[in-house]
Amino acid sequence: MKWHAVDSNKDGLLRHPRDAEAWKRFDSKFFEFSSDARNVRLALASDGFNPFGNMSTNYSIWPVILIPYNTPPWTCMKQTNFILSMIIPGKKMPGNDIDIYLQPLIDELKVLWDGVETFDASSNENFKMRAALMWTISDFPGLGTLSGWNTYGKLACPICNIDTEPCRLHHSRKWCFMGHRRFLHAGHRFRLDKTRFDGKIDRRNPPVKLSGSAIFSQVENIQVSFGKTPEVKGKRGRGQRNANEDESHWRKRSIFFELPYWEFNALRHNLDVMHIEKNVCDNVLYTLLNESGKTKDHLNARRDLQSMGIRSTLWPNENGKYPSAIFTMSNKQKDIFLKTLKNVVVPDGYSSNISRCVDVKQRKIFGLKSHDCHILMEQLLPIALRNAMPGLVFAVIADLCSFFRQICSKVLNPIDLVTLQDQIVHTLCHLEMIFPPSFFTVMVHLIVHLVDEVKEGGPVHYRWMYPIERYLGRLKSYVRNKAQPEGSIVQGYLAEEILTFCSRYLNDTETRTNRPRRVDDQPDHVEHHESNTMFPKVGRSVGGFSYFILTPLEKLQAHRHVLVNCIAVDPFLEEFRAITKRMLRHRTRLQSEIDKVVHKEFPNWFQKHISNEGARHSEELRWLALGPLDQAKRFTAYNVNGFKFRTLSRDHGLKSQNSGVYGMFDTRSYATTSIDNWIAETSNYGVGVWQSYLQQRRRHKPHDRPLQSRCGGGSRRRAGRKIRRAAAVTEGRCGAEEEEEDSAAAVAQEEGRN
Questions:
Q1: 42: CB partners within 8 A, 6+ apart
Q2: 556 and 628 in contact (C-beta within 8 Å)?
Q3: How many other CB atoms are found less than 10 A from the CB of residue 275?
Q4: What beta strand segments (E) does 620-659 contain?
Q5: Residue 309: inside a domain
Q6: Is the predicted pLDDT of residue 735 greater than 50, yes or no?
Q7: Per-residue pLDDT band at 304 (split at 50, 70, 90)
Q8: How far apart, in whole angstroms, are the C-alpha atoms of residue 58 and residue 208?
Q9: At residue 693, does pLDDT exceed 70?
Q10: What is the residue range of 75's domain?
Q11: Cα atoms found within 13 Å of the Cα of residue 299, Cβ hemisphere only
């Protein structure tokens, strides 16, 4: 619980909410609270779900979950750390009445802010523990429920607040959220361009984000009567009610303002990147495919263009016919795009089988889940659209996908966020020039505010809904009694908490905390003497194995690779470099020449050196100098470091691909052999095909078996150049490999297109 304060990594990068501005501002404002690292920072998450699954029953339960942020990144968002503080029962959504249900929790948070007597087991003393609520996590409608902001209508954006010019599309009968030119610098040429945008010059300044005190002044005098109002039956009544709701931008004063510190929080309610990405992906996909009922480019959208007086070439004629836009795919382009997605295979556990959502015959995509859209936007969409769309449209969508890929990174540099914000503003402006105004829903507009929220709250995976949605699915599994779903959830949660607590004290029993991971990579039968060996067992083989004989060149390559990547051999390697440098005193002493000699002669020198000095060195080092045996094991499948690796033949016919390789290795690089300066760079190898997994047996030491792997079809990308190369991929660092390996390995295939 004190990790956030005692961790020594202070390099300025955003890895955790403690690195962001909101946490730091809270510390500076409430110094007494931040002076004790044991005080708890909390997030509140809530969302509604139907406990009856797909049954045709309208029933919404709203769990309220507290998440402590004191713990390190690898445990912070685990379900075992979630606290189910309360359950708001169904049958209907709480709406504004959620404040009534939250009142007991708010009272407890007030008490925790003042402090409660707590026992610290680590220091064996009592102390006054305090807790503070940092922000809330919810989807966009849930944000309106918790904050009181009206997320429907012309002022739907809670960040822009009232500083916006709403645009009503009369034919589409919806509000449009364009106008992203206001986020550009004052002299940008796009601001004066009327033809390609909405027909107006935009000289507005970016909206100023209001502080918590300014928000409180807006809602301070709002009077709200809680309780359900009688429903007005009929279409006319529903339309009248919605119109009245849209007139007011605040529906209530949030109960969170009763907390004495809430108005001073820099970030109070998070925008959910998960649902934003899902909605943007749906808009892009269905508009490009021109799918009826889901596309944003339809007859009414073209009539809106006509009423706005822009893009006359896209206006419909008197018969309601209109020409295709530049972004509308033809049948041939749809076939290229959908076949690419249909044939995509990804590593095991990376995503679901997206090809099941693609119907090539009907030329449709259906049934995409949120994580499917996440993978599409960040990885697959730019690849699939590359040969299916005009260059202008592809470039803009690729920039949009690049933004989501960067904003969802686990580690971010605050300096890069400035460039990222400028990039997304330009991307949104280019989207306005291509797509119709109906494309720009409020979810598309919210993209422009995500970078600022990252600055204030840290990486998005601490503040999005993915872990919450998974937890809600677990709560749904507790429902056994359909008549009392809330009671079933409470009993299931209590039983789970008790078992989790007890399991922390059971070392010899498989429990939730120590059970094997999804990919079981724990080695079998690890003996006691192997725990301290130089080469402990790593990973776990799957299936059988076969023996084969290493060629002399393969033995040399394997031996050299183990030596140059073994820490215990580093002093001998440096000694040999010094000897080589002295021997070359009458010739060139370039580092590249020294590396060549080390590459060719070090294994033999090391063997003679160790054998001559005898008992001065450890037994393991003496065995290591002798090199591997002629016989090695070959596996077709191996699990290591939580990943599955399979050979190409074993992957054949599967829906997942675990034979592809993309490796990053540290190596020395030289511009030419006549230059002494070398650069320690990271070279990217890919895509290789796993051919075999080798387990060497060192001479006379059968239990020490370093694991190596061999792949073919590797290409290396470095400084913009491509080099055909067979890459020997193993654990640890990568030693310099020279031309003899390329010809001898005989596994290099024709280089693929990068």
A1: 66, 67, 68, 69, 131, 132, 133, 134
A2: no
A3: 21
A4: 628-635, 637-640, 643-646
A5: yes
A6: no
A7: very high
A8: 40
A9: no
A10: 3-164+207-223+241-270
A11: 7
User: Scanning the structure block, which residue is given the tokens 């918790």?
Assistant: 146
Cα dist from 121 to 1, 83, 115, 502, 517, whole Å? 12, 20, 18, 17, 30
Listed in order, strand segments (DSSP E) in 225-368 are 358-359, 364-365
Are the CB atoms for 389 and 329 separated by under 8 Å?
A: yes
Instruction: Calculate the alpha carbon distances from 750 to 712, 725, 746, 747, 753 in Å.
Output: 10, 10, 12, 10, 10
| Domain shared by 257 and 310, yes or no | no
d(CA 747, CA 754): 19
What's the rounded Cα separation, in Å, for the pair 639 and 445? 43
Residues 702, 585 share a domain = yes
Structure confidence at residue 15 as a pLDDT band (50, 70, 90): very high
Helix axes 414-434, 391-407, angle to 10 degrees: 150
Residue type, 35: S
What span, in angstroms and rounded, lies between the C-alpha atoms of 603 and 142? 65
Which of 433, 456, 479 is the endpoint of a domain?
A: 456
Q: Is 732 left (phi over 0), alpha (psi -120 to 50) or beta?
A: left
Predicted TM-score (pTM) of the model is 0.83
Mean pLDDT of 526-548: 74
pLDDT recorded at residue 509: 78
* pLDDT higher than threshold 50 for residue 556: yes
Verify that 444 and 577 share a domain, yes or no: no
Count up the domains in the chain and report the number.
3
Q: Based on the fold, state whether residues 266 and 280 are members of the same structural domain.
A: no
Quick one: 524 exposed, middle or buried, by C-beta within 10 A (0-12, 13-18, 19+)? exposed
- What is the identity of the amino acid at 641? N
- Same domain? For 216 and 306 the reply is no
Within-domain flag for 497: no
Q: Are 630 and 554 in contact, with CB atoms under 8 Å apart?
A: no
Q: 132 is written with which tokens?
A: 């503070």
Q: Which range in 57-66, 505-514, 695-704 is most confidently predicted, on average pLDDT? A: 57-66
Amino acid (1-letter code) at residue 388: A
Sign (positive or negative) of CA dihedral 420, 423, 429, 434 = negative
Band of the pLDDT at 668, cuts 50, 70, 90?
Answer: low
The reply to whether 473 falls in a domain is: no
